[in-house]
């Protein structure tokens, strides 16, 4: 691989741009196609579009011989709303599982470096943070503050932007009230089924650490079963 | 800060860039096809330098040794090559996939 092609690909990955590295197996020639490019004139246009949708890398046979398409989708990201006890366990576990993690909590007593050493921590309102770093289909959102003033906005944004996982802490009763507020805010009710509530896989989790495992399990399940999210 | 900066889990393509950027001779191995139960999916990478240092994986550790020695040849010749591993392989007794699958690995120099 040409070194400049490798640095270009790494730049795309850092900027969360989907790209496909095309390798002609017969002579080793390579090129990079970005999802944002207009590749309609590309001889492989149809195949490239299909691969961007499925996220699957693979070998194809063309008139000119075998061609390998390596699909690079943005790394899955987890945005946790609430710098609470569950989050303290969830951050390191999610990082080990390969997720890029951000914790947002406007309550500065919770969002401290001491409680989240080395983490990407934003001690600000989700409304402000998401202005600069918007949610996308490659992002999971877990809202765990129990406070509608903090949780509601990012949950609604997550549904609107098609986040691959949307989880909300709270009992069934709390969740029913939440959906009432979302309906009043004009959100389409058909989106409500996308919310994982009560949050996490049903493994009988009791402690904050166990709930973190249940949440991470639900995120990985969503990541690996939704098409075009994980490469 | 990204997950790869806060933990020690390597990002193979970034490693390839930093090794090459530091002047080391580098080859990149990529799983391009799998049949049956293969330990690592298509698109998985292993980066190798001329001294045989490597990071990443193309199998669960079954064939990395063989890929590394082939990669050192690729670094010397500058020519990419394709390798196949599996139980049907005649070298199965030495290097093969214990899971019974087959994989095809493309090894190319980073130049």
UniProtKB/TrEMBL annotation, chain A:
Domain XdhC Rossmann: 78-218
Gene3D superfamilies (UniProt xref): NAD(P)-binding Rossmann-like Domain (3.40.50.720)
Superkingdom of source: Bacteria
Pfam families for the chain: XdhC_C (PF13478)
Protein name listed in UniProt: XdhC Rossmann domain-containing protein
Native species: Roseibium aggregatum (strain ATCC 25650 / DSM 13394 / JCM 20685 / NBRC 16684 / NCIMB 2208 / IAM 12614 / B1)
UniProtKB/TrEMBL annotation, chain B:
Pfam families in the cross-refs: XdhC_CoxI
Domain of life: Bacteria
Ranges of residues in domain XdhC- CoxI: 19-86
Protein name per the record: XdhC- CoxI domain-containing protein
Protein source organism: Roseibium aggregatum (strain ATCC 25650 / DSM 13394 / JCM 20685 / NBRC 16684 / NCIMB 2208 / IAM 12614 / B1) (Stappia aggregata)
